[in-house]
Amino acid sequence: MNSKAAVNAAVSPHLATITVGKKTLSSYAFIAGLLIYALYSAPFPANPGLTEFMIASLFMLFVNIPTGILVMSGGFTIYQKYGLFPVWIHVGFFLLLWWGLYNGGVVYHWQLSDIVRDLIPCVYIFVPLLLLPAMQRSRLNWQLVFPWVLSAVGVILSIRFFFVVGISPLDIGKMSYFDNFLYLPYDPTVSFAGIFLPIMAVHTWKSTSFFRWMGSLLMITGGFLCLGSLMAVAQRAPLGMAVFSFFIYFMLSSRKSLKKMILFLIILITISVLAKDQIVDSYDLLVAKQENYGANGKTNEMRAVLNETSDSVYSLLFGIGWGGLFFDPTYQSEVSFTHSAVTFFLLKGGVLGVLIFLYYLSWITYKLLQNMKMKQLPYLLSAIVPLTIGLVFQPSFKTLTYGMMITFLCLLFSKSQEGI
């Protein structure tokens, strides 16, 4: 062996260790960013500051700058080497991002602050393009780790809500509470954890294991803290869909395990007895809200968006760009946001924007159906609910963790992340 080969042989293990160490460190930086978000930020931060800058920096450390530049600048051929998405999804994101910026800034001259507020949600929704390459490089099995990280974020946000409002879970149902514009229960991870943790408490339970019993008890507690925060703000759609998800899981899982079916019934009966007053009072609040508000102005909002975009052929095809304002009859003023992702992309990107967005979601749905396994049912039920909420009912599609939900669904059919 010559001297050069000897040096390479000696150095290679150390270089490999350093590379693995960096990958692991950046993965933990990403998780730390999500936990900092849960502890100190909010779903819709009014004035992003040092906390949001720290979160963005930790995420950038995970994604790395070259990958970010590749995705944002349209390096389509190079990006295809990852083998993660069809080229048309990358092209569509590129067009949405930059044409919307040109449209809002040059054609319509919207305010810079409004442009940035619209640009960020677009990046959040397409964030799997940035995150999946980093997760592919990572040493962690994100398919296994990520749902628990997202659940931790949801539980922390729910606990924060109870502290901010100054109530305990026993106060649920007395009135509809308000958390001073933080909107913590509206975060997608709250509804995710509210479904995922109770289902997994049953799904992973073993009657012979004391630690599984304790784990299931912790999961039930965390899950119902999340559901409790949703009940405290009288969120109709996520609570209704959560009940429907539990019903689907119960019907499908009871055919395989009699013990788990009995456990599920015991949990249901126990909670119904212990939290009877909270459940009945919350139900009355939900019914009253439905009677008083109905669709909460969403149909009027849809008509207003259609009127705005049909003002000209150009706005119908390409929208009014990032930062665009429209008159919302619900608020009787001009606003820049809508209550669903569909109307958001129609308003800002026109028919072209909606088609790109729907193609993106359709491709993910197709891949999920193509690779679906019964053991993935708890994960699918938990993630689909918050995604549907943002798609149709609430502006939660503008949150950081909405993109994390889409990323998690992409992980479920990722060949490099086998585990669930």
Describe the structure.
This protein folds into two domains: 64-139 and 297-420, no CATH class; 142-295, no CATH class. A two-stranded antiparallel ribbon has the order 1-2. Helix content is 73%, strand content 1%. The longest helix is centred in the N-terminal third of the chain and has 38 residues, at 3-40. The two termini are 45 Å apart. The radius of gyration is 23 Å and the shape is globular. It is an all-alpha fold. It contains 18 helices and two strands. Helix 1 (3-40) runs parallel beside helix 8 (142-165), helix 6 packs parallel to helix 18 (400-412) and helix 8 (142-165) crosses helix 10 (210-232).
Across the major sheet, the strand order is 1-2
- What fraction of residues sit in β-strands? under 5%
* Shape label: globular
Number of domain modules: 2
| Residue share in helix | over 70%
Using the CA coordinates, give the radius of gyration. 23 Å
